[in-house]
Amino acid sequence: MIDLSLLGLSDKNSGAYTGSKSLQTSGKKIECSSPVDGKMIATVDSCDFDNYDKVVSLAQNAFVEWRLWPAPKRGEVVRQVGEALRENKLKLGKLVSYEMGKSLQEGYGEVQEMIDICDFAVGLSRQLYGLTMHSERPGHRMYEQWHPLGVVGIISAFNFPVAVWSWNAMLALVCGDVCVWKPSEKTPLSAIACQNIVSDIFSKNAVPEGVCSLVIGEKDLGERFANDTRISLVSATGSTKMGKAVAAAVGARLGRSLLELGGNNAIIITPDADLDVAMIGCVFGAVGTAGQRCTTTRRLIIHESIYETVKSKLTKAFMQLRIGNPLDENNHVGPLIDKGAVKSYLNAIDACKKEGGKFVVEGGVLEGEGYESGCYVKPTIAEAQPHFNIVQHETFAPILYLLKYNALEEAIQIQNGVPQGLSSSIMTLNLREAELFLSAQGSDCGIANVNIGTSGAEIGGAFGGEKDSGGGRESGSDAWRAYMRRQTNTINYSQTPALAQGIKFDL
């Protein structure tokens, strides 16, 4: 169990926070149980619409003041948030692991991502660069600058309960925006813990109440988010189905959306691969977070000449996986998030078998001592065909499909032949193969790797995908621009007016 008081939590928690203050909410009670042991952790009273409106209205008011703080001063506040996360890394990481079910090391790693993005954002606060352009008109100067958008709404998923929020929030904050966060109703306690950590820092720095807010609820609250004209940008992480609904609602009001959606990620293994390196990337990519990452490896596209060798190595590796309580660092794989996810896992196995798939490592639900929650499943491997309907879809579970190819162009076609386009990899020591994979005729994903797996992104690079994966970019590089509006400025410092394109207009 977790000592909730260490992170400012209790057995009963509010579902709305304006910053340092919690509101008395009257929505549906959310019961938070751990998939680790099935035990109740705490309850949260979800945010009703009246309190949601209070939170967003206060955020609007806070923006009027926050946008006037110099960006480096905003960055200093984010720096202190990073330091507070360092101090609370072990406590928060353990809560993430227990509430979500990912391994303890992955829980710590997720908090480390938050620390890293804080460091990145601090530097960014002094680098919100614009451009200058030469004007065609004498005595004129042109330049562009970037201004904060306003209220940024962040909808995050259960599989990364805290890191994805920080990717958005820390960048938005240094850009001068204010944030309202709606976490997954499956992992609200980790979100409240983050709110408590941030609020303490904000109070010490006299940050306006409402700059960083939290609302907790179910689908109807997310719909309210998407349709709210007061929210300038909706950044949503989740399924493709959810993303399409958000995009339609936000687009109808001509708002902005940043979408990070599902993945159906593949690794191509060529005859020139270092198989020792490849196995590590393939196995962790397939079973890390029990297959519940958007970057999870779901397909292995293997050259026919090494197919049997790779299959044998994978089978041996899967048989050695230790499945159990993720708080025990000796275990490799924890539980799925809930019994609904277990049902989806079993349905996918049945669907694959009906289409002709052959399972070389059988799946199933684990029972008995240590598995009382009913959420522990066996990572499984199936031989399949690229055209199988189930292979075309993302299943948030540790199911790995083996596909065979003859020529690299065929492998790339298989890799690209799914609706999703998030992450991809090739395992090869052949420079020509690697460069072809990274070229315009290669992977069509937002992320393309060589000799590493599909999961595990660094915050320095922009994160996101194409096609049904949403097209958004978060975290590093120039992803900060999504949280700002561009303005082009022209200044006439001459004593005579001049029109563009040489137009004459004499009075």
Automatic annotation (TrEMBL):
The active site is at residue 260. Residues 26-488 form the Aldehyde dehydrogenase domain. The keyword Coiled coil does not apply. Pfam families: Aldedh. Its EC number is 1.2.1.3. The keyword Oxidoreductase applies. It comes from the Bacteria. GO terms for molecular function: aldehyde dehydrogenase (NAD+) activity. Keywords: NAD, Oxidoreductase. InterPro entries: Ald_DH/histidinol_DH, Ald_DH_C, Ald_DH_CS_GLU, Ald_DH_N, Aldehyde_DH_dom, ALDH7A1-like. Homotetramer. Belongs to the aldehyde dehydrogenase family. This is aldehyde dehydrogenase (NAD(+)). The gene is pcd.
